[in-house]
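Hi W., the MRU complex you wanted:
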Amino acid sequence: MKIQNQHYRTIWRDAPSVCIIDQTQLPFALVIERINTHTQMCHAIKTMQVRGAPLIGAAAAYGVGLGIQHNPDDQTVHKVASELIATRPTAVNLAWAVQRMTQQLLSVPDAQRVQAAWEFAQAIADEDVAQNHAIGQHGHSLIAAKAAAKPMRVINILTHCNAGWLATVDGGTALAPIYAAHDAGLNVHVWVDETRPRNQGASLTAWELAQHGVPHTVISDNAGGYLMQHGQVDMVIVGADRVTSNGDVCNKIGTYLKALAAYDQQVPFYAAVPTPTIDWQLLQGTDIEIEMRDADEVAYMQGQNASGQVCQIRVIPYESKALNPAFDVTPARLVTGIITEHGVFRPEQLLSLAAR
Ligand code: MRU
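Structure:
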């Protein structure tokens, strides 16, 4: 993706470091941070300097490279892997990437492991970019079909959280079809849910759509149902942190409410999902561990004040408690289709992909 006409990925190796875009500083500052140890990578994942299911998978893969660079023995590989896996529980991409790294590294002699780790991590990052590109093409066809049915009219797409290029190594999942449609000249407009409590929609999705020149409007999380009732939403496209083999979609908290409203209003609801986000071991979404984050993320909001300083303000009484579940599960029955790099599947058809 381009930021002010310069191409960036969200993560890349610049030996001896791994560089990331610090997403906690966006949209007000573009800060590149150098990560030098796997402990620093664990911290970056936990504090959401890097975030989004595919990106935390790639970040953890690079983290393995950092963690074994001075001692690549079996014990260190296992220790580094378990510390990285423990950083965030819900997005399956993280455990998937670390397990793949571990398996591949243990099959290589110790003396070759450091170099191999960088190559394996790079492969995970490159595969993510290719998968997202394919998702973009398949999703573009869905948008093009809507546009054909509604000639000369704007296609309004609602999205929740950030499943754009910032949530991946590059390209995005839910936003990939939107970028492809926009680049092909379709008249798309995006309703961007702000996505409390951390506002990934308002601060990240809005920022990257603006960088790409895609027309968009930020709405409060509560506005989506109203817009659907008034014919203002043609389709919903979201990302996912984990999809179970029955097609249940776990994504950022609030996604389920959007799916319910979409179902009630007969608005198609799609999840854009690269296959590393599918957990074939879990049969249903209720088995997914939902990350509970610090209540302060609900009690405080971050923003820029009139003097240009980024600061935190408290929005609830000091006497009140807050609760912060970070994800919810949308049952397969509410999902119109799952857009993968291999095509678009009805949730009940998903298992046909497992054999590939
Ligand atoms: O807590 P976050 O910001 O990591 O959550 C991100 C999401 O829920 C995304 O929608 C999901 O990871 C898909 S990203 C392509």
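The chain has two domains: 2-127, 151-353.

W.
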